[in-house]
Amino acid sequence: MTSSASSVVTAAIFLFLSYQSVSGKDCACELKTLQRPFPMKQLDSVRTVAERCSRSITSTQITEADVQMQGVQRRLQQLEESVSVLENEDDGDLYSAVSLRMIELEFAEFQVVLGKLKNSIKSHKQLSESTTTKLRNMTESLQELEDFDLLHVVRNQREIRRLTRELAECQHELQPPTAQPHCPQGQLVKVNGPRTYSLTQYGTSYPYGAWGKDPKPAPGKEAMYWLVALTSSKAYANYVRHYSSLSAILVGVGPMDSVISSSNPTTNTIIGPNVVQYGDALYYGCYNTPSVCRFNISSKSVTNTPLPQNSGFNNKFPFGHLDATYIYTDLDFSTDESGVWVVYTAPENFGNVILSEVIEGSPPSLGRTWRTSLHKRTATNTFMACGVLYATRFLDKQTEEIFYSFDTETKEERYDLKIHLKKMQTNIQSLHYNPRERTLYAYSDAYIVSYDAVLCSCDK
User: Fold this and answer.
1) What is the DSSP string of 77-125?
2) For 245, how many CA atoms within 13 A lie in the half-sphere containing its CB?
3) Distance of alpha carbon 282 from alpha carbon 274, whole angstroms
4) What is Dmax (Cα atoms) for the chain?
5) 308 backbone φψ class: left, alpha, beta (φ>0; ψ -120 to 50)
6) Is the Cβ–Cβ distance between 394 and 322 less than 8 Å?
7) pLDDT tens over the chain, length 460 residues
8) Separation between Cα atoms, residue 29 and residue 34, nearest integer Å
């Protein structure tokens, strides 16, 4: 059958044509369709409900219960400490009444925070039930509308997506496996220190920044340390400073500056404190764009690669805790035995952490990517060690806790690590791991601090 004949037959299936003679030679054609008219109002209704659902569920609502839960935990811990002090007091009842009154006030505050948490949980439950009902109704409506797809376009598109996904999985299986970092020492079990604690050459003027050693140094630069202080609005920097040794950076002598750009901030300069140096190149978030920048220290050249579409930047998904937010920490870079990594997130992943490999090159590129269940705003920092992502949170002014891990090989997630870091200042603005020394480098309220990382392959 020819193409034209096929078209005629197809038309005959869908249409019924009735001819009537008018004035001898002229005729009128009455077109009657054998199919139901497409229900555009039903489709518009589904679209409207979907848009309302998207607007009604915000990232703030998602994190609200998590933040309030942290507040309840902190208040409860403070209350327990106060009760313990009262129980151990032996002052002849001189101050017991005052201590008891303080406990009553703390308990009242605890009840207020607990009440807010209960209201949030109740609100989230109602929202979840309402959204589930709407989704069920939309699914049923879309299934009804699919009956009008006589050429099976939707079904074919669905089948194409399935085949594309299976093809990608098949290609991945045929590729030689990527070498995993060799880590016979196992996973992180303890952090000792601080080993180093010093104010930088800048003094207390610039509380945001990062420092450390290159895990893959260029020849002749094995002993060198690098330092980036955000010298503009606590958010931007246009150069990286190098020191010949640890004593030189602690004393602040002999700095050597590698300038990215003469002006600050501008295209391809640094935004945010979570930067690292690896292979004689500095990796950081590009100014005012969701991209990974790579500054070659030797050639003084900058190349970049964009993050996936809609990735958060410009302070949309920063780290933080109940009392503070660490500005412009949307992108967090880290190093380990296998290279460079970047942590970020996007609304499509509900603000949960996304982890990607950064492949060396000029320009760099993104490699394998993992999506986790860790909400980025509930953490204060992340770092990599032996292919495992770790996250920290604020306990109090003296203690930071490594509470979470994600193993990129097994995809196992844990929220129960309870590894403590002793802090010398209130906040830690950046934190990353150096595999050559098994050292954690932290930048804490203008102070540079280092810790010994203890890893073990045995059961804890």
Assistant:
1) HHHHHHHHHHHH--STTSSHHHHHHHHHHHHHHHHHHHHHHHHHHHHHH
2) 4
3) 11
4) 122
5) beta
6) yes
7) 444 444 433 444 444 444 454 555 667 666 666 567 777 888 888 888 888 777 766 655 555 666 667 667 667 777 777 777 666 665 555 556 666 777 777 788 778 878 887 887 777 777 777 778 888 888 888 888 777 777 777 778 888 888 887 787 676 556 544 444 456 667 899 999 999 999 999 999 999 999 999 999 999 999 999 999 999 999 999 999 999 999 899 988 999 999 999 999 999 999 999 999 999 999 999 999 999 999 999 999 999 999 999 999 999 999 999 888 999 999 999 999 999 999 999 999 999 999 999 999 989 999 999 999 999 999 999 999 999 999 999 999 999 999 999 999 999 999 999 999 999 999 999 999 999 999 999 999 999 999 999 998 755 4
8) 16
In contact, 89 and 81? CB cutoff 8 Å? no
Cβ(265)–Cβ(238) below 8 Å = yes
d(CA 210, CA 277): 10
Q: Tell whether omega for the bond before 176 is within 30 degrees of 0, i.e. cis.
A: no
- Could you tell me the CA-to-CA distances from 54 to 58, 139, 140, 173 in Å, in that order? 8, 16, 19, 36
The vertex-269 CA angle with 205 and 197, nearest 5°, equals 35
Between helices 40-56 and 96-145, what is the axis angle to 10°? 160
Listed as own residue / partner, the contacts of 318-324 with beta carbons closer than 8 Å and 24 or more positions apart are 318/377, 319/376, 319/377, 319/379, 319/380, 319/381, 320/377, 320/380, 321/70, 321/380, 321/393, 321/394, 322/67, 322/70, 322/71, 322/74, 322/394, 323/394, 324/394, 324/427
CB 275 within 8 A of CB 283: yes
**Which residue, 309, 310, 319, is CA-closest to 343?**
319
Question: How many helices and strands (H and E) does the chain possess?
Answer: 6, 27
Q: Give the closest residue to 329 by CA, choosing from 316, 321, 318.
A: 318
CB 68, CB 120: distance < 8 Å: yes
Task: Please tell me whether the peptide bond between 194 and the residue prior to it is cis, using omega within 30 degrees of 0.
Answer: yes
Q: Indicate yes or no: pTM above 0.85.
A: no
